[in-house]
Amino acid sequence: MILYHVTLFNKPTQEILIPRIPGDTSIGEEVKTNRICLAPSIIQCLRALEIYKYFQEDTLDVKVYKIVVDENDEQLISWEQLYLNGLVDDAALTHEYWYKSKLIPVEYNEYRISECVKKRYIIISSKEKMRIKEIIETIGVCFNRLEKYNAFQIMNEWLPRQSETFQEQVKKKLTHKVEEYTEGSAEIYKKIFGNIPERFREEKDFREIEYLEKCKIEYIT
After folding, report:
1. Cβ burial, residue 146 (10 Å; 0-12/13-18/19+)
2. Are the C-beta atoms of 21 and 71 separated by less than 8 Å?
3. I need a labelling partner for 134 at 20 to 30 A (CA). Which of 45, 69, 140, 201 fits?
4. Angle at CA of residue 183, ends 179 and 187, nearest 5°
5. Half-sphere exposure of residue 217: CA atoms within 13 angstroms, side-chain side
């Protein structure tokens, strides 16, 4: 199978790609495994890299490495494995793969990226699928036909087709309580400020983040 690896233009050009832990991992991403991050297309690589963060002008140059690997290679971890095992929560969107050994690219090119368009996605852990099922069935919707979809697909493909009221009901229930203080710290707070705040707050079990949706990719060399 063909996969790609993208780096910023100011990074050294590499004849051999070496596994490492990226310095810009996303929230909740596993940070113990040395790996080379790959994806099936250049735009998916750019999406995983959150490339728009690096723009200082209207264009940005990147280095692109083309890789050929056996999809059954034991050193290759698929995006499905990364997502379902809770290693990379946005892998269901970016289709990020990991390779755990050195790689020699079969091709190297440079591209110019411009005209980036972003779209907001709901990033949610795979493990939340059962909670989503419980919530949807509580509202009165049969979940059977959604069993084949993962949590990301349900929240980003199926849910947006429902009414806004239904969407808000599901999102409102996808939360958990977080304790803000202990009884001891509450007394200290009261002495200082004269009142005690709410002890618990609701925290979302998902994140809504803008990702690259499309862009212009021009070959340079």
Report:
1. middle
2. no
3. 201
4. 120
5. 19
Tell which residue, 91, 130, 128, 101, has the closest CA to residue 36: 101
Amino acid at 67: I
Burial of 198 (0-12, 13-18, 19+ CB in 10 A): exposed
Give the pair of three-digit tokens for residue 157.
């493909």
- C-alpha closest to that of 18 among 45, 37, 36, 38: 36
Asked if 56 and 10 touch (Cβ cutoff 8 Å), the reply is no
Q: Where does the chain show beta strands of DSSP type E?
A: 2-8, 36-38, 59-68, 76-77, 97-99, 107-123, 175-179, 200-204, 207-219
Neighbours of 219 (CB within 10 A): 9
pTM of the predicted structure, to 2 decimals: 0.87
Whole-number Å distance between alpha carbons of 96 and 5: 10
Q: Residue type for 115, please? A: E
| DSSP single-letter state for residue 185 | H
Reported as a single tens digit per residue, the pLDDT across 128-173 is 999 999 999 999 999 998 999 999 999 999 999 999 999 999 999 9
What's the one-letter identity of residue 220?
A: I
**Measured between alpha carbons, how far is 204 from 62 in angstroms, rounded to an integer?**
35
φ/ψ of 112, rounded to 5, equals: -110, 125
